[in-house]
Amino acid sequence: MKVHRSLQAALAATLLGAALFASPALAQDKTYKFDIIVHDGSTSFYAPVQTGMEVACAELKADCKFMGPPNGSDPVAQVDLAQNAINSGVDGIILDVPDQKAKDKITAYAKEKNVDVFFIGTSYPDDPDHASIGQNFYNAGVAVGKQIEKYLPNGGKVGIMLCCAGNIPLGQRASGEIDTLKANPKFTVVGPVLMGQDETQAFGAIEAMYQANPDMVGIFGTDASTEVIARFIQRNKLTGKVIGGGFDLVPATVNAIKTGDVKFTTTQNPFLWGYLSVHQLYLKRQYGLNPISIDSGAGVVDSTNVEKVNPKYD
Q1: Check: CATH 3.40.50.2300 for 137-267?
Q2: Spatial distance between the Cα atoms of 160 and 145, rounded to a whole number of angstroms
Protein backbone atom coordinates (compact mmCIF):
# COMPACT_ATOMS: atom_id res chain seq x y z
CA MET A 1 0.00 0.00 0.00
CA LYS A 2 1.13 3.55 -0.66
CA VAL A 3 2.26 5.34 2.50
CA HIS A 4 1.71 9.07 3.04
CA ARG A 5 4.97 11.07 2.81
CA SER A 6 4.80 12.33 6.39
CA LEU A 7 4.33 8.73 7.50
CA GLN A 8 7.40 7.66 5.56
CA ALA A 9 9.49 10.26 7.34
CA ALA A 10 8.10 9.37 10.74
CA LEU A 11 8.57 5.65 10.15
CA ALA A 12 12.15 6.12 9.00
CA ALA A 13 12.93 8.21 12.08
CA THR A 14 11.28 5.68 14.36
CA LEU A 15 13.16 2.74 12.89
CA LEU A 16 16.45 4.60 13.15
CA GLY A 17 15.68 5.55 16.72
CA ALA A 18 14.71 2.00 17.63
CA ALA A 19 17.99 0.69 16.23
CA LEU A 20 20.00 3.24 18.16
CA PHE A 21 18.15 2.75 21.41
CA ALA A 22 18.54 -1.02 21.18
CA SER A 23 22.34 -0.71 21.50
CA PRO A 24 23.88 -1.72 24.85
CA ALA A 25 25.07 1.83 25.62
CA LEU A 26 21.52 3.19 25.39
CA ALA A 27 19.54 0.31 26.83
CA GLN A 28 16.30 1.27 28.55
CA ASP A 29 16.28 1.23 32.34
CA LYS A 30 12.84 -0.32 32.87
CA THR A 31 10.05 -2.26 31.23
CA TYR A 32 7.43 0.25 30.12
CA LYS A 33 3.71 -0.43 30.17
CA PHE A 34 1.50 1.00 27.42
CA ASP A 35 -2.19 0.32 26.78
CA ILE A 36 -4.20 1.06 23.63
CA ILE A 37 -7.82 1.78 24.53
CA VAL A 38 -10.31 2.29 21.68
CA HIS A 39 -13.94 3.37 21.78
CA ASP A 40 -15.23 0.19 20.12
CA GLY A 41 -13.73 -3.20 20.88
CA SER A 42 -16.15 -5.13 18.68
CA THR A 43 -15.00 -4.06 15.19
CA SER A 44 -12.37 -5.87 13.16
CA PHE A 45 -11.06 -2.49 11.96
CA TYR A 46 -8.66 -2.32 14.90
CA ALA A 47 -6.99 -5.68 14.20
CA PRO A 48 -4.05 -4.05 12.32
CA VAL A 49 -3.75 -1.45 15.11
CA GLN A 50 -3.32 -4.25 17.62
CA THR A 51 -0.79 -5.97 15.34
CA GLY A 52 1.20 -2.74 15.09
CA MET A 53 1.17 -2.42 18.86
CA GLU A 54 2.38 -6.00 19.29
CA VAL A 55 5.26 -5.54 16.84
CA ALA A 56 6.39 -2.29 18.47
CA CYS A 57 6.11 -3.67 22.00
CA ALA A 58 8.12 -6.74 21.07
CA GLU A 59 10.86 -4.50 19.64
CA LEU A 60 10.91 -2.34 22.75
CA LYS A 61 10.36 -5.18 25.24
CA ALA A 62 7.37 -3.24 26.57
CA ASP A 63 4.34 -4.66 28.36
CA CYS A 64 1.28 -3.71 26.29
CA LYS A 65 -2.45 -4.39 26.22
CA PHE A 66 -5.16 -3.63 23.69
CA MET A 67 -8.76 -3.14 24.82
CA GLY A 68 -12.09 -1.51 24.04
CA PRO A 69 -15.78 -1.78 25.02
CA PRO A 70 -17.13 -5.14 23.79
CA ASN A 71 -20.57 -4.01 22.62
CA GLY A 72 -19.88 -1.23 20.12
CA SER A 73 -18.85 2.38 20.55
CA ASP A 74 -19.25 3.32 24.20
CA PRO A 75 -17.48 6.47 25.48
CA VAL A 76 -18.58 5.88 29.09
CA ALA A 77 -17.13 2.37 29.11
CA GLN A 78 -13.97 3.66 27.43
CA VAL A 79 -13.48 6.21 30.21
CA ASP A 80 -13.77 3.41 32.78
CA LEU A 81 -11.22 1.27 30.92
CA ALA A 82 -8.81 4.20 30.65
CA GLN A 83 -9.11 5.11 34.32
CA ASN A 84 -8.55 1.47 35.31
CA ALA A 85 -5.46 1.34 33.10
CA ILE A 86 -4.10 4.53 34.65
CA ASN A 87 -4.72 3.17 38.15
CA SER A 88 -2.91 -0.06 37.23
CA GLY A 89 0.36 1.85 36.85
CA VAL A 90 0.81 2.16 33.08
CA ASP A 91 3.35 4.64 31.73
CA GLY A 92 1.18 5.74 28.84
CA ILE A 93 -2.19 5.21 27.18
CA ILE A 94 -3.06 5.43 23.50
CA LEU A 95 -6.63 6.47 22.78
CA ASP A 96 -9.06 6.52 19.87
CA VAL A 97 -11.76 8.56 21.61
CA PRO A 98 -14.18 10.47 19.34
CA ASP A 99 -16.01 12.12 22.24
CA GLN A 100 -14.79 15.48 23.57
CA LYS A 101 -16.13 15.04 27.10
CA ALA A 102 -14.66 11.55 27.42
CA LYS A 103 -11.34 12.81 26.07
CA ASP A 104 -11.22 15.69 28.56
CA LYS A 105 -12.03 13.43 31.50
CA ILE A 106 -9.36 10.86 30.61
CA THR A 107 -6.59 13.36 29.87
CA ALA A 108 -7.22 15.28 33.10
CA TYR A 109 -6.97 12.08 35.12
CA ALA A 110 -3.87 10.94 33.23
CA LYS A 111 -2.15 14.25 33.91
CA GLU A 112 -2.95 13.94 37.62
CA LYS A 113 -1.33 10.48 37.66
CA ASN A 114 1.67 11.42 35.45
CA VAL A 115 0.60 9.09 32.64
CA ASP A 116 1.39 10.09 29.05
CA VAL A 117 -1.39 10.18 26.45
CA PHE A 118 -1.22 9.82 22.65
CA PHE A 119 -4.22 9.89 20.32
CA ILE A 120 -4.88 7.60 17.37
CA GLY A 121 -7.71 8.03 14.90
CA THR A 122 -9.41 11.06 16.40
CA SER A 123 -7.08 14.03 16.79
CA TYR A 124 -7.61 17.15 18.87
CA PRO A 125 -5.61 19.93 17.18
CA ASP A 126 -6.79 22.48 19.75
CA ASP A 127 -5.05 20.47 22.49
CA PRO A 128 -1.35 21.44 22.36
CA ASP A 129 -0.36 18.95 25.07
CA HIS A 130 -1.10 15.77 23.13
CA ALA A 131 -0.01 14.56 19.69
CA SER A 132 -1.84 12.12 17.42
CA ILE A 133 -1.69 9.93 14.35
CA GLY A 134 -4.71 9.74 12.08
CA GLN A 135 -6.47 11.15 9.05
CA ASN A 136 -7.48 14.68 8.31
CA PHE A 137 -11.08 13.50 8.30
CA TYR A 138 -12.62 16.30 6.28
CA ASN A 139 -9.96 15.96 3.57
CA ALA A 140 -10.53 12.20 3.56
CA GLY A 141 -14.22 12.86 2.97
CA VAL A 142 -13.34 15.15 0.08
CA ALA A 143 -11.18 12.35 -1.36
CA VAL A 144 -14.17 10.01 -1.21
CA GLY A 145 -16.35 12.65 -2.83
CA LYS A 146 -13.91 12.78 -5.73
CA GLN A 147 -14.01 8.99 -6.04
CA ILE A 148 -17.78 9.16 -6.22
CA GLU A 149 -17.52 11.70 -9.05
CA LYS A 150 -15.08 9.37 -10.79
CA TYR A 151 -17.39 6.34 -10.64
CA LEU A 152 -20.57 8.34 -11.33
CA PRO A 153 -19.52 10.85 -14.02
CA ASN A 154 -23.14 11.51 -14.92
CA GLY A 155 -24.08 12.29 -11.34
CA GLY A 156 -27.41 11.31 -9.83
CA LYS A 157 -28.91 10.78 -6.40
CA VAL A 158 -26.56 9.33 -3.77
CA GLY A 159 -26.92 8.45 -0.11
CA ILE A 160 -24.32 9.16 2.58
CA MET A 161 -24.48 6.88 5.64
CA LEU A 162 -23.35 7.82 9.16
CA CYS A 163 -23.25 5.36 12.01
CA CYS A 164 -23.50 7.63 15.03
CA ALA A 165 -24.70 11.13 15.87
CA GLY A 166 -22.00 13.20 17.55
CA ASN A 167 -19.06 11.13 16.32
CA ILE A 168 -16.47 13.82 15.50
CA PRO A 169 -14.34 12.13 12.79
CA LEU A 170 -17.24 10.48 10.98
CA GLY A 171 -19.16 13.74 10.92
CA GLN A 172 -16.15 15.46 9.36
CA ARG A 173 -15.84 12.74 6.74
CA ALA A 174 -19.53 13.04 5.89
CA SER A 175 -19.15 16.82 5.57
CA GLY A 176 -16.22 16.41 3.18
CA GLU A 177 -18.18 13.98 0.99
CA ILE A 178 -21.35 16.09 1.00
CA ASP A 179 -19.61 19.42 0.37
CA THR A 180 -17.77 17.94 -2.61
CA LEU A 181 -20.93 16.50 -4.16
CA LYS A 182 -23.12 19.54 -3.48
CA ALA A 183 -20.57 21.65 -5.37
CA ASN A 184 -21.30 19.47 -8.41
CA PRO A 185 -24.73 20.31 -9.91
CA LYS A 186 -25.03 16.79 -11.30
CA PHE A 187 -25.55 15.29 -7.82
CA THR A 188 -28.40 15.16 -5.36
CA VAL A 189 -27.38 14.10 -1.84
CA VAL A 190 -29.55 12.23 0.63
CA GLY A 191 -28.18 12.32 4.16
CA PRO A 192 -26.19 11.90 6.14
CA VAL A 193 -28.55 9.10 7.17
CA LEU A 194 -28.00 7.65 10.64
CA MET A 195 -27.68 3.88 10.49
CA GLY A 196 -26.64 2.86 14.01
CA GLN A 197 -23.84 0.56 15.15
CA ASP A 198 -25.70 -2.75 15.07
CA GLU A 199 -25.28 -4.41 11.67
CA THR A 200 -28.92 -5.49 11.43
CA GLN A 201 -30.08 -1.99 12.28
CA ALA A 202 -27.62 -0.51 9.78
CA PHE A 203 -28.84 -2.83 7.01
CA GLY A 204 -32.42 -1.80 7.78
CA ALA A 205 -31.55 1.89 7.63
CA ILE A 206 -29.90 1.47 4.22
CA GLU A 207 -32.88 -0.54 2.99
CA ALA A 208 -35.36 2.09 4.16
CA MET A 209 -33.37 4.88 2.53
CA TYR A 210 -33.21 3.02 -0.78
CA GLN A 211 -36.92 2.13 -0.73
CA ALA A 212 -37.69 5.83 -0.25
CA ASN A 213 -35.29 6.72 -3.09
CA PRO A 214 -35.44 3.92 -5.71
CA ASP A 215 -33.72 6.18 -8.23
CA MET A 216 -30.57 6.25 -6.08
CA VAL A 217 -27.37 5.42 -7.99
CA GLY A 218 -24.85 5.31 -5.14
CA ILE A 219 -24.56 4.57 -1.41
CA PHE A 220 -21.41 5.55 0.49
CA GLY A 221 -20.22 5.12 4.05
CA THR A 222 -18.01 6.97 6.49
CA ASP A 223 -16.52 4.04 8.44
CA ALA A 224 -16.08 0.26 8.49
CA SER A 225 -19.84 -0.19 7.94
CA THR A 226 -19.03 0.04 4.22
CA GLU A 227 -19.23 -3.76 4.41
CA VAL A 228 -22.94 -3.46 5.28
CA ILE A 229 -23.47 -1.31 2.19
CA ALA A 230 -21.79 -4.06 0.16
CA ARG A 231 -24.08 -6.69 1.69
CA PHE A 232 -27.17 -4.62 0.86
CA ILE A 233 -26.09 -4.18 -2.76
CA GLN A 234 -25.26 -7.87 -3.15
CA ARG A 235 -28.43 -9.22 -1.52
CA ASN A 236 -30.68 -6.95 -3.57
CA LYS A 237 -28.87 -7.74 -6.84
CA LEU A 238 -27.95 -4.10 -7.33
CA THR A 239 -24.32 -4.69 -8.34
CA GLY A 240 -23.60 -2.48 -11.34
CA LYS A 241 -26.83 -0.53 -10.84
CA VAL A 242 -25.92 1.08 -7.49
CA ILE A 243 -22.31 2.06 -6.79
CA GLY A 244 -20.99 1.56 -3.26
CA GLY A 245 -17.89 2.71 -1.43
CA GLY A 246 -16.55 4.24 1.76
CA PHE A 247 -13.88 3.62 4.34
CA ASP A 248 -11.67 1.00 5.98
CA LEU A 249 -10.19 -2.35 5.04
CA VAL A 250 -12.15 -4.89 7.03
CA PRO A 251 -12.02 -8.30 5.28
CA ALA A 252 -15.65 -8.20 4.12
CA THR A 253 -15.12 -4.87 2.35
CA VAL A 254 -11.94 -6.13 0.70
CA ASN A 255 -13.86 -9.16 -0.59
CA ALA A 256 -16.69 -6.91 -1.79
CA ILE A 257 -14.26 -4.92 -3.91
CA LYS A 258 -13.02 -8.16 -5.45
CA THR A 259 -16.59 -9.23 -6.29
CA GLY A 260 -17.56 -5.76 -7.51
CA ASP A 261 -20.29 -5.16 -4.93
CA VAL A 262 -18.50 -1.97 -3.89
CA LYS A 263 -16.06 -0.05 -6.07
CA PHE A 264 -13.60 1.34 -3.55
CA THR A 265 -12.69 1.95 0.06
CA THR A 266 -10.38 4.43 1.76
CA THR A 267 -7.63 3.35 4.13
CA GLN A 268 -5.77 5.20 6.88
CA ASN A 269 -2.79 2.92 7.66
CA PRO A 270 -4.09 1.53 10.98
CA PHE A 271 -1.05 -0.72 11.52
CA LEU A 272 1.07 2.40 11.87
CA TRP A 273 -1.39 3.83 14.39
CA GLY A 274 -0.42 1.05 16.76
CA TYR A 275 3.23 0.83 15.78
CA LEU A 276 4.21 4.50 15.76
CA SER A 277 2.12 5.48 18.78
CA VAL A 278 3.91 2.96 21.00
CA HIS A 279 7.30 4.13 19.76
CA GLN A 280 6.40 7.77 20.37
CA LEU A 281 5.32 7.12 23.96
CA TYR A 282 8.48 5.08 24.52
CA LEU A 283 10.67 7.93 23.28
CA LYS A 284 8.78 10.36 25.52
CA ARG A 285 9.14 8.19 28.59
CA GLN A 286 12.73 7.07 28.05
CA TYR A 287 14.32 10.18 26.55
CA GLY A 288 11.90 13.04 27.10
CA LEU A 289 11.27 13.48 23.36
CA ASN A 290 7.86 15.05 22.80
CA PRO A 291 5.60 13.12 20.38
CA ILE A 292 4.70 14.66 17.03
CA SER A 293 1.40 14.53 15.15
CA ILE A 294 1.24 12.56 11.90
CA ASP A 295 -1.28 12.56 9.05
CA SER A 296 -1.84 8.88 8.21
CA GLY A 297 -3.26 9.68 4.79
CA ALA A 298 -6.29 8.54 2.79
CA GLY A 299 -5.20 5.88 0.34
CA VAL A 300 -7.77 4.49 -2.10
CA VAL A 301 -8.19 0.73 -2.58
CA ASP A 302 -10.11 -0.41 -5.64
CA SER A 303 -9.95 -3.18 -8.25
CA THR A 304 -6.53 -1.98 -9.45
CA ASN A 305 -4.73 -2.65 -6.16
CA VAL A 306 -6.99 -4.73 -3.91
CA GLU A 307 -4.91 -7.86 -4.47
CA LYS A 308 -1.98 -6.14 -2.76
CA VAL A 309 -3.92 -5.60 0.47
CA ASN A 310 -2.69 -7.50 3.52
CA PRO A 311 -5.53 -7.43 6.09
CA LYS A 312 -3.06 -8.06 8.90
CA TYR A 313 -1.34 -4.73 8.30
CA ASP A 314 -3.56 -2.50 6.11
Answers
A1: yes
A2: 10
